[in-house]
Structures are given as structure tokens and as C-alpha cells.
Amino acid sequence: MGLQDKVANRAEVLKGKAKEAAGKITGNPRLEVEGKLDQGKGNLKQAGEKVKDAGNSVFGR
Q1: Which of 5, 12, 31, 54 has its CA 20 to 30 A from that of 40?
Q2: Is 28 left (phi over 0), alpha (psi -120 to 50) or beta?
Q3: In this predicted model, what pLDDT tens digit does every residue of 21-40 receive, in sequence order?
């Protein structure tokens, strides 16, 4: 996984956590859900990158 991808995916997760927290504080359920979705997307992208890395190490790329 490239460093830029790692940083971008982690940033998306952190952005989601911030949105979720802001939604909880303000009582905005939509913002809270958006935050959870952002976290899920970031985590899914991280998992995909890890699978690619594993494949590359197995096949020697």
C-alpha cells in the first residue's frame, strides 16, 4: 500500500469519527450516520489495500 493511500484512507476514517462526534454533540442523527459511513468507506479501502499488498508479496511484485 502506498503511503499516500494509507494517509488518505486514515484521514477518511478520522473525518468520519469527527462527523460522528459532531452529530452526537449537536443531536444531528444525519451527520452521525454520515460519519459512520465515512469511517466504513475508509476502513474498507484500507482492507482492500492490505489485500493488494498481500497479493503482491505472494506473487513477488
Answers
A1: 54
A2: beta
A3: 999 999 999 999 999 999 99
29 C-beta neighbours (distance < 10 Å), count: 10
The per-residue pLDDT for range 2-24, each reduced to its tens digit, is 789 889 999 999 999 999 999 99
pTM score above 0.90:
no
**Amino acid (1-letter code) at residue 38:** D
Segment holding 61, helix H or strand E: none
- In the chain, what is the straight-line distance between the N-terminal and C-terminal CA atoms, in Å? 12
